[in-house]
Write a structure and sequence with these properties.
The two termini are about 35 Å apart. The protein is built from 9 helices and 12 strands. It has helices at about 40-45, 70-75, 90-95, 110-120, 140-150, 170-185, 195-200, 220-225, 225-230; strands at about 1-10, 15-25, 30-35, 55-60, 60-65, 75-80, 155-160, 185-190, 205-210, 210-220, 235-240, 240-245. β11 (about 235-240) and β12 form a beta hairpin. α4 (about 110-120) packs antiparallel against α5 (about 140-150). The chain folds into 2 domains: about 1-75 and about 155-160 and about 185-245, Rossmann fold; about 75-155, no CATH class. By secondary structure, it is an alpha/beta fold.
């Protein structure tokens, strides 16, 4: 499974990440939390091999940095924080997830079309397949991008603040879908800004502060140690059995 060992990043003489080490639990939803500038997106860039770093990042024992891009994309799928909205259909977008498997002919086979259909069905976008991407709502577009990375058939999914521009209902539906994917064997590393949603949907929590890892463990352990409260200076209340964080 994905493992970070003493990962560090220094840019312009400034330490952005320092000695970040963790192992993702298989088929678990791990939420990455931290204030702005804590190093969350830098960590994601390291995992995506887009940022040079010290230490090592491995996936099932293989050094991610040494894997060819196609092989890496077959094992870890990434949904970045900012994505474009090209003037293409939802099906065309989702089909891009098959790029790591298509040969030089650039022709898709039955397995590719089946993966695309599965991804559209899993994200409840079958009826939207022929819709143009710009005509969708923000939540629908994010589901389309999720379908794209599901079509990639990777075991590990990395999502950087995927619910930022969603309304409350779309946000809840999207996270419920991510939660369900873990029961289907997917391993998720999700950067979130909403502490309450992290407490509701995550299995594990990784907290970064000023580029340093201050907590990594189960959600239950995180709540027991009040790690979120101490990092974000918030207070925790329980309402009808659910954890809420308030400023």
């Amino acid at each position: 499974m994905l493992q970070c060992n003493s990962v560090g990043v220094t840019l312009g003489g400034k330490e952005i990440l320092s000695n970040v080490s963790f192992t993702l639990r298989q088929s678990a939803f791990t939420a990455v939390l931290g204030k702005n500038g804590s190093g969350k997106s830098t960590l994601a860039a390291c995992i995506c091999a887009q940022q040079k770093h010290t230490g090592q990042i491995t996936l099932c024992g293989s050094d991610l940095a040494s894997l060819p891009p196609r092989a890496r994309a077959q094992r870890i799928a990434v949904l970045p924080q900012n994505v474009p909205t090209p003037n293409i259909t939802v099906r065309e977008l989702v089909s891009l997830g098959r790029n790591p498997y298509i040969g030089l002919s650039r022709r898709m086979g039955d397995e590719d079309f089946a993966a695309i259909d599965r991804a559209l069905t899993r994200t409840d976008l079958g009826a939207f397949a022929d819709r143009m991407l710009p005509t969708l709502s923000g939540g629908e577009r994010q589901r389309a991008y999720l379908a794209m990375i599901l079509a990639q058939d990777a075991d590990v999914l990395l999502l950087d603040e995927p619910t930022t521009y969603m309304d409350i209902r779309a946000e809840a539906e999207f996270l419920q879908l991510l939660r369900a994917l873990t029961a289907e064997g997917k391993t998720l590393l999700v950067i979130l800004h909403d502490l309450t949603l992290a407490a509701k949907y995550a299995d594990d929590v990784l907290i970064l502060e000023h580029g340093r890892q201050t907590f990594c463990g189960t959600k239950e352990e995180c709540l027991k140690k009040c790690a979120i409260e101490s990092t974000f200076s918030v207070r925790r209340i329980n309402v009808d059995g659910e954890v809420l964080f308030l400023a």
